[in-house]
Every structure is written in C-alpha cells, then in structure tokens.
Amino acid sequence: MKPWRLTLTNQLVLGYGLHEHMDCYSTRPASEDELRSFHSSDYLEFLKRVTPENADSFLQQLPRFNIGDDCPIFSGMWDFCSLYAGASLDAASKVLNNQSDIAINWSGGLHHAKKSEASGFCYVNDIVLAILQLLRHHPRVLYIDIDVHHGDGVEQAFYSTDRVMTLSFHKYDKDNYFPGTGSWDDIGGGAGKHYSLNVPLRDGIDDENYIRLFKSIVQPVITSYQPSSIVLQCGADSLGGDRLGCFNLNIAAHGACVAYVKSFGLPLLLVGGGGYTPRNVSRLWCYETSIATGVDVGLELPVKLGSPYRAYFAPDYKLHPSLGRDGRFENKNTKKYLESVRIRIMEQLRYLNGAPSVQMMEIPPELGRLQSELQNGVKEEQKA
C-alpha cells in the first residue's frame, strides 16, 4: 500500500503520454468538516494527533480504533489520509460539475475503513465521502467493487439506504479470508434491503469466467437500479500473482470490466484500492487509464520510461505479462457454482421493482446511526 505503487503508475501514464488526453489536477487535503460527513470526531482527532513518536500515550485508544498489525501508525499518516480523501472528493466534484465524464483517483479506493475505526490498511473511507458528495445532485449511485476483498466499509455505510446500491465481487471465506463478510445473503437492511449485492467467489477464478459473470450481473443491475452515476473500485489484488490475492486474472480481463462499465455512458469515478505487487498494480492502473481515455497503448512498455523505473518491470518489460496462466491457484469456481451465484443476484433484483424514487432533500448524513438502530433491532428480535 506504500505510495511507490502510485509513483510507478504515474511514470507509466507519463511515459505513454496519457496525461495529454485528460485534465490533470493537483489535489488538496480534505478538511476536517468534509471528513466528519462520515467519520466520527473522536476518531479523526486521534488520527490527527497520533504519531510513531507519541503512540505510547495512546495505548488505550489503539484497540478502540482498531490500530495494530493491519493498520499501523506511520509518519505523515494524517496528511496521507486527508490527501487521498481530498483527491476523491475533488474527483466527485469534477463529475458533479460536468467537468469530467470520467474522474480517476488511483490513490483512493480504501474501502475497509469504518465510521470510527481503521481496517485492512484503510484509515479514511474516501469512497463513502465521494459518494456522499455525488448524492447531493445524483438520485442514485451504484458502487461496484472488483478488489479481491469484500468492500465491507462502503457496504456498511450505506446498508440502510436505497440511494446507494453496492455490488462487490470478491473472495469469500468467512473464517479464513479477510474481512470474512460478503456472503450472498448479505443484502442490506431497512430501506436498503436488497440494495447490497455480493458476489462471493472461490480461489482461482480465471479471465473468461470472471468477465462472463461480471457482465451478466452488472447489466441487469444497471438496468434495474438506473443509477445516475457509478463509482468503480479497481483493487489490483484480484490480479493473478498478487501477494495477498488468490485469483488468476490477467490485466486485460480486469480492464475489460472497466471498459464494460464505461460503455454505459454514465458519469464514472474510478478509484484504486488493494494491490500488493507494485509492478503489476501500476501496469493495471495505467492500462485502465488508457481505457478511460480511449487511447491504445499497445503491449510494450513506453519508450520514455527510463531508469530507475524500467528495471522494476524486468524481465519481460511488457504491459501485459502472463499473470494467471501459471495455475498458481486451482480454479474452484465451477460453472454450476457461478450460475447459482448469478441466479441469487437476479432473485434479489426482482424484489426491487425498478429504480427507487428519491426525495432529493434527504442526503443520508447519519448512516452510522441508522445502521446502529437496525442492528439493535435485530439483536432485540433475537433475544425475544
């Protein structure tokens, strides 16, 4: 998750000249007021004050905010979080103001962060903040997540509203794979019931099956829900050969999902996410930038990519190395299983009866409270 992934991505984008086909903006830090539109004040105060040097004085707060192995304290943490969140907020603003048909923030996509705690390398949930921004003028937002891990933080934030539909394709193993959520029967609650869609996958899914399943689900979801904008989280840990991933996807297949979502012509926000083999993360996000801009970059690395960056792409020096053909993970997704997952999603869509009507004056500002009330109600019913 270190910024080196972004440095390599930036060098590839510049090397191919893709920056000449889009408007490029310098971001600014998100303000505390902007961050408080989702995150709690005490959690933000903690993030702002804690450093590696004074961490001992916050020992009692570390468990409360889930700070530990997966979410360590590091120098510049507050600046980093506020900058990537500010970038996603600015990207959403470009979409809202019709300055961009597609806006990209590869530094964003940190989908595990919760209202009052960090999770899975994620401290501030820039995706939730950006979606709240979009909801100011867009009646319905569709969130699609193709990270190998379940987009639990975003789903949890919008669990009780029908103004956001979340659709996550991910590896699911409740007891053995982080975060252990995202079963097919995890469908939302309250006004948001049936607006949380999950596609739980098993190890080793390949290009052909993934693309077929993705298209067969996304098309009816968009037709039924009729979103006015889409946020697509492009986590690169779903690629074959990722250090934490368990799929066999190649860069072209991952990019085909982005191209398919783009083909619907809706305002689109692309964000990054996971990905723990930096040379492949950067290849992927550069390729998906080329898809967004409609520029064919070919298969060879750009000629302008000089030292020291070129050395990181040895020995093939290709934009599309073979990532999924080595059979690192056996494909445990049978056609019967994938079809059963698709059918379950279609069954959920039948409950919706078309796109929900929206009272535009109601922007979901108290999502944490709504979710707490729902969960407390469930607990009371279980006791009874």
UniProtKB/TrEMBL annotation:
Active-site residues, record numbering mapped to chain: H112 (proton acceptor)
Ligand binding (substrate): D70, G120, Y276
Family matches, as Gene3D superfamilies: Histone deacetylase domain
Chief subcellular location: nucleus
GO biological process annotation, one example: epigenetic regulation of gene expression
Gene Ontology cellular-component annotations: Rpd3L-Expanded complex; Set3 complex
Gene Ontology molecular function: any one: histone deacetylase activity, hydrolytic mechanism
Binding site for a divalent metal cation: D147, H149, D237
Catalytic activity, reaction form: N(6)-acetyl-L-lysyl-[histone] + H2O = L-lysyl-[histone] + acetate
Cellular location(s): Nucleus
Ranges of residues in domain Histone deacetylase: 1-290
Enzyme Commission number(s): 3.5.1.98
Keywords recorded for this protein, A-Z: Chromatin regulator, Hydrolase, Metal-binding, Nucleus, Transcription, Transcription regulation
InterPro entries from the UniProt entry: HDAC_I/II (IPR003084), HDACs (IPR000286), His_deacetylse_dom (IPR023801), His_deacetylse_dom_sf (IPR037138), Ureohydrolase_dom_sf (IPR023696)
Family, as annotated: Belongs to the histone deacetylase family. HD Type 1 subfamily.
Protein name in UniProt: Histone deacetylase
